[in-house]
TrEMBL record:
GO terms for biological process: putrescine biosynthetic process from arginine. PROSITE patterns: CN_HYDROLASE (PS50263). The lineage of its organism: Bacteria, Pseudomonadati, Pseudomonadota, Gammaproteobacteria, Chromatiales. GO terms for molecular function: N-carbamoylputrescine amidase activity. Residues 44-303 form the CN hydrolase domain. InterPro entries: Aliph_Amidase/BUP, C-N_Hydrolase, C-N_Hydrolase_sf. This is Carbon-nitrogen hydrolase family protein. It comes from the Bacteria. The keyword Hydrolase applies. The keyword Hydrolase applies. SUPFAM superfamilies: Carbon-nitrogen hydrolase.
Length: 364
C-alpha cells in the first residue's frame, strides 16, 4: 500500500471483485465515483459514524465499525467517515500495542470489501505498521480499489507512545477533486488550515477527543472549555476553508492510566462525541452528542467549485484562543516523553512481538 501521493492503482483482481460485487448487489458500477470535478457543484450524501469503542479491543471495534458502515450504506450514504483510530480508540494502556495492524491488513481489507459491495467511498484511521514504524494512518478507500493515505502529522499527549507523526500534506486526489484530511487536534492547528486552503473541496475528519479524568470535579470550567474547542473545530475548519467538513468521533467511557512514568495511576474518563456534518458556510447540518452514543449521521452536502472562506486563519500555532497554557505546555512535553516510550517499547514490540519493561528516561 502506497502513500497518498502515489495512488494504489486498481489491478485486474480488484476490478473483477468490484464488478462482481456491483452486479450481485444491484449497485451501479459508477455509484459513488462518477462525479464531475470541473463544471458544476457536486451534491453527495455523506455519513459521519460515531462509535462507542472498547479501548484496545480490536475485534469488538472492527465489528462495531462494520455494523455502522452497513447502516450508513442502507441510508444511502455515498461517502462514509469513521472516527480516528476506529480499531482501538486511545489511552495509555498495555492493550494498545495489540491493536497495531499492517497498513494493508484487516482494517484496510474490511473497508475495501464494504466499499466494493456497496459502491461507497469509506475513510478511517487506525494504528498501522508501515516500514518498521507505526503511524496513525487515515485510508480513503474507493469502490474501484483505489486506496490513498494520510498520516496524522503529530500525536497528542499519550498518543506519542504508540505512533510517530507523518509528513504528507493531507491532500488526497479523487474523481470529486482534491480531498483534505485532518485528524483530531490537526483541526485546531493553524498550519493544517494553511496547507489545505485553496486546495480542497471537502475535509474528512475523525477524532478520539477525551475529557478530564473522572476524579476531576464535574463543574471544573476546563471541561466546558474542552467541549467548546471540540464543538468549534469542525465549524471553524469549514469557515476557514470554505468547504464542507465531515467529522466522525468516539463517545463513551474508558479506563486507562496516567502515563508511562505513572503507569499504575488510573486515568478513567470518556470520549466526547460531537460527530458533525458541516456545510461550506459553517452551518451544522447534523450533530451527535456523546450522550447519544453510537450511531450514524447522514446528510447531503454540496461541494463548491470555488470555496469562499468566511473566517481568517489565525497566525498563532493553536487556533483556539481559550486553550489553556498548561495544555499547550503538556503537549510539547509529551512529544519527548511519549517518544521515549515509543522507541523503547512500541518499536521493539513491532519487531519482536514482546513487550519490554519500561524505564523512564530520567531514571536511565
Amino acid at each position: 500500500m502506497k502513500r497518498q501521493s502515489n495512488t494504489l492503482a486498481i489491478d485486474r483482481r480488484h476490478f473483477v471483485a468490484w464488478l462482481l460485487a456491483c452486479l450481485t448487489t444491484g449497485v451501479s458500477p459508477g455509484k459513488g465515483m462518477a462525479y464531475s470535478t470541473t463544471d458544476e457543484n457536486n451534491t453527495i450524501k455523506v455519513a459521519a459514524l460515531q462509535m462507542t469503542p472498547r479501548l484496545g479491543d480490536f475485534s469488538a471495534n472492527m465489528e462495531q465499525a462494520e455494523q455502522l458502515i452497513r447502516q450508513a450504506q442502507r441510508q444511502g450514504a455515498q461517502w462514509i467517515v469513521l472516527p480516528e483510530m476506529f480499531t482501538s480508540a486511545v489511552a495509555f494502556h498495555p492493550d494498545m500495542l495489540g491493536v497495531i495492524r499492517p497498513i494493508e491488513g484487516a482494517p484496510a481489507q474490511m473497508m475495501l470489501r464494504l466499499a466494493q459491495q456497496s459502491g461507497s467511498t469509506i475513510g478511517g484511521s487506525f494504528l498501522a505498521s508501515v516500514d518498521g514504524e507505526v503511524r496513525n494512518s487515515f485510508l480513503l478507500v474507493s469502490p474501484n480499489g483505489d486506496i490513498q493515505r494520510h498520516d496524522k502529522d503529530q500525536p497528542t499527549y499519550w498518543e506519542n507512545c504508540y505512533y510517530q507523526g507523518g509528513a504528507d500534506e493531507g491532500v488526497l486526489t479523487n474523481p470529486l477533486g482534491q480531498i483534505g484530511v485532518a485528524l483530531c487536534w490537526e483541526l485546531i492547528r493553524s498550519r493544517t488550515m494553511r496547507r489545505l486552503k485553496d486546495r480542497v473541496r471537502l475535509v474528512l475528519s475523525g477524532s478520539c477527543w477525551w475529557t478530564l479524568s473522572d476524579d476531576v470535579d464535574i463543574a471544573n470550567p476546563l471541561r466546558l472549555i474542552n467541549l467548546s474547542m471540540l464543538q468549534d473545530a469542525p465549524v471553524h475548519c469549514a469557515r476557514m476553508l470554505g468547504v464542507p467538513v465531515v467529522h466522525a468521533a468516539h463517545a463513551g467511557s474508558f479506563k486507562g492510566f496516567f502515563s508511562p512514568d505513572l503507569p499504575d495511576i488510573p486515568y478513567d474518563s470518556s470520549y466526547m462525541g460531537e460527530s458533525m456534518i458541516v456545510d461550506a458556510t459553517g452551518a451544522v447540518l447534523a450533530r451527535r452528542s456523546a450522550e447519544e452514543g453510537a450511531g450514524t449521521l447522514v446528510a447531503e452536502i454540496t461541494l463548491p467549485l470555488e470555496p469562499k472562506p468566511s473566517l481568517v486563519i489565525p497566525q498563532r500555532f493553536w487556533m483556539p484562543d481559550t486553550m489553556p497554557v498548561p495544555w499547550k505546555t503538556a503537549w510539547v512535553r509529551w512529544l519527548k516523553s511519549g517518544s521515549h516510550y515509543y522507541k523503547r517499547v512500541t518499536r521493539d514490540y513491532l519487531a519482536t512481538g514482546k513487550t519490554n519493561d519500561y524505564t523512564p528516561e530520567y531514571m536511565e
